Request: fold
Amino acid sequence: MAVELQPRSAFAIAQRRFDAAADVLGLPDDTRRLLREVKRELTVHFPVRHDDGSVHLYTGFRVQHNINRGPAKGGIRYSPDVTLDLIKALAMSMTWKCAVVGIPYGGAKGGVVVDPRRLSRSELEHVTRRYATEIALLIGPEKDIPAPDLGTTPEVMAWIMDTISMHAGHSVTASVTGKPVEVGGSEGRQEAAGRGVTYLTVEALKYLNLGEETPTVAIQGFGKVGLPAARLLHRAGLRVVAVGDSKGAVYNPDGLDLEALEEHRKVRGEVSGFKKAEDIAGQELFGLPVTVLVPAAVEGQITEHNAPRIRARLITEAANAAIDPQADAILNERGVFVVPDILANAGGVIVSYFEWVQDLQAFFWEEEEINTKLHHVITRAFYEVLHTSVNRQVDMRTAAYVLAVQRVANATTVRGIYP
Reply:
């Protein structure tokens, strides 16, 4: 009797989405077998001495899915929910994300099983430097370039870069991206993911002819992606009416005062309780009567259970795998237009690529130039995906995967098999 894959396995879902694109392309079996598995997976266990003198053992991972189009690229996540299965799924997603926007990277991802909020700054630095040392055999400017993800920051990237540099005996600024500008980081990097979400939302609204007087937006997540997306969507002329975080959500149909909400959250540690809006349950945010829904939190937020309640005409999937496959099918049936994650949140890796290029040539661009280049790259990719969707009569997610998988498959075929 065949053993069935766990339906909620993140990597199984990633493979399922790849398989759908491979079927559309008629990908040869040999190429399909190669691309649906990861190239390398490293698991490390390492001790760290805490401030009180006790020693704790941590587990970390670094996975490279494919490097046929260039060095591996992908973030590092610090979370108690990190698993090898999840890291493999995210590494595969990074391969398609880089390919769909046409930047010369492969996909990777890393993580440590840790809650960074429970560590002192000193303990966090020690975990980071030891983890960087453990994965140092894989990473480097020409091999694999990490970046921030959930639970990590520009400061964490600076510690990783410094650790790699100490081992090398000279500064290796291009070894990571998402660093502070003082040590080779790029202007515009912190808002890049949210800026990309904004550019794509505006283009999708134009295509869908949803230019009502003021399109309304609900955003789940008010962190690294959701917060800048909220600010930038507001500046672009949309009305942000709801915002949620891990503890709840707030709603004001007339629009939220985002500056006041930010100040409130700094004081309270959550958006709930904001006097200029109504408190609602986090799940209620998905059913609000808005034009645009932006899930910008974590994986698996839109499922078969809440997808039927969604009233938005457009979803810009800012978080990785925020929509599960069952929900995808429901949304497609209901005519909801989805800008998929591998395109929607590619702003971060695009500007990370710009940072890497600037570090390698030791010549830096001004933020205006970076934002212009980001707009060009991500909107070009949007219309390439849209063209593929229309021509092949598939939804936008399948179209994005078809485009990305074809590019990686072409590179794989051209390079051949060694030896």
User: Anything to note?
Assistant: DSSP finds 13 helices and twelve strands in the chain.
